[in-house]
Design goal:
This protein is α/β, with parallel strands linked by helices and about 400 residues long.
Length: about 400
């Protein structure tokens, strides 16, 4: 009698803890007598029936990226794709499918609601989840899906990049520079917001369009006082008139996202030109860490929960689970636990699209709130909790 089978795929942009999920799933199926099928290049592999048995392939927890590789495929744009995918899954006699991806990858799962799936969110944008704060009282225990896989590692990195101890602050001070650092984040500013743990001077995010004249004056005054400034801007930042700071709207991907071309460079160039009448702007520079945010080994928090999610997903199918859910990470006072969110309640994946709101951002000061720092203090582990006399644990 053949072993029961479970499938697994990774889609969208890679993040550091993907292999940790796969590795944990490998160990879990070995203990339960289940075969694990890995689809190559995400949904593309399911559609083309391209897969490997993961029984004899060694996967390292601490190596970033994904051994199964990845792709961005919108099944809704391919003729008969949902039915072809469903036929392939049934032909392989899979008990269920583990889908690891961001908002776009997970949206394909909603086209296959009748097939059992366990969804695991991963994206450095941290935009899959729900904020539920009632009566203006912020309770972090009520955040549905506290963080997405990959976000803790990327949040630590951007905090380090702008900090005094590990990053650009020391260079900005030494040479009296204004440095504009670009963050990933097409439509949400969670990664840019995380930089607050490294204490930049200003943070610009897509949810709150940039009033350029107001910002320019604040930046100039800060520079004239301190002789160095660090600015973080998300790639999807917008001007007050609604247009992107830098995006090619004619070059969109399968999910309708424009190609972003360098918001930090555009903003730096504009500031350099407009502020040269007040001070020397030759030391006004743009830095874009780009793919460094999503590369390398995962942080401990990322790795630990990647393994818990992979183990839990296999366990559900081993117990006969035959529905579709999103596995979530919930804060439980001073620790985290796994939770479930039923996919059948979702009409579209956008219902799980989490934006930064005024709870976490001061719009006219271009900076994070105290609540944002409390939220991020549970995620960013390695940045010193005090810099420039700011106590992040108060």
């Amino acid at each position: 009698m053949s072993k029961p089978r479970v499938g697994i795929l990774t889609g969208g942009g890679d993040v550091p803890p993907l292999n940790a999920v796969i590795s944990a799933a490998q160990r879990a199926v070995a203990q339960r007598g289940i075969e694990l099928i890995g689809f190559l290049k995400g949904w593309e592999g399911v559609l083309q029936n391209r897969y490997v048995s993961l029984s004899r392939i060694r996967v390292h927890d601490d190596i970033g990226g994904t051994i199964l590789k990845s792709s961005r495929l919108n099944l809704a744009t391919v003729p008969d794709a949902p039915q072809r995918v469903l036929d392939n899954l049934k032909r392989l006699r899979l008990r269920g499918l583990i889908v690891i991806g961001g908002e776009d990858t997970l949206s394909n799962s909603l086209l296959l609601r009748e097939f059992p799936q366990v969804l695991i969110s991963k994206t450095i944008d941290n935009n899959v989840g729900i904020l539920r704060f009632s009566n203006k009282k912020v309770s972090l225990n009520h955040v549905v899906n506290y963080f997405t896989l990959g976000y803790p590692t990327a949040a630590e990195k951007i905090s380090e990049f702008v900090s005094l101890q590990y990053g650009l602050r020391s260079t900005a001070y030494s040479h009296e520079r204004i440095i504009v650092v670009e963050s990933m984040g097409m439509h949400t500013g969670w990664l840019a917001l995380a930089s607050c743990m490294g204490n930049p001077d200003f943070i610009i995010i897509p949810e709150f369009p940039l009033d350029y004249e107001l910002f320019k004056e604040q930046l100039a005054l800060r520079y004239e006082r301190n002789k160095h400034v660090i600015v973080v801007i998300a790639e999807g930042a917008r001007w007050k008139n609604g247009g992107f700071v830098s995006a090619d709207e004619k070059d969109k991907d399968e999910f309708g996202h424009p190609r972003f071309k360098g918001a930090a460079s555009i903003l730096a160039d504009r500031l350099k030109q407009d502020l040269k009448i007040r001070f020397d702007t030759r030391n006004l520079n743009a830095v874009n860490p780009s793919y460094l945010y999503r590369s390398g080994a995962p942080s401990k928090l990322d790795s630990d929960f990647a393994q818990k999610l992979g183990t839990k997903a296999v366990g559900l199918f081993a117990e006969g689970f035959d529905e579709s859910i999103l596995l979530t990470i919930q804060r439980n006072n001073n620790s985290f636990k796994l939770g479930r969110y039923p996919v059948k309640e979702l009409r579209t994946i956008e219902e799980l699209h989490r934006f930064v709101d005024k709870t976490f951002y001061r719009e006219n000061e271009y900076t994070a709130t105290r609540e944002a720092r409390k939220y991020l203090a549970e995620i960013v582990e390695q940045i010193p909790r005090t810099e420039y006399g700011v106590n992040l644990k108060d």
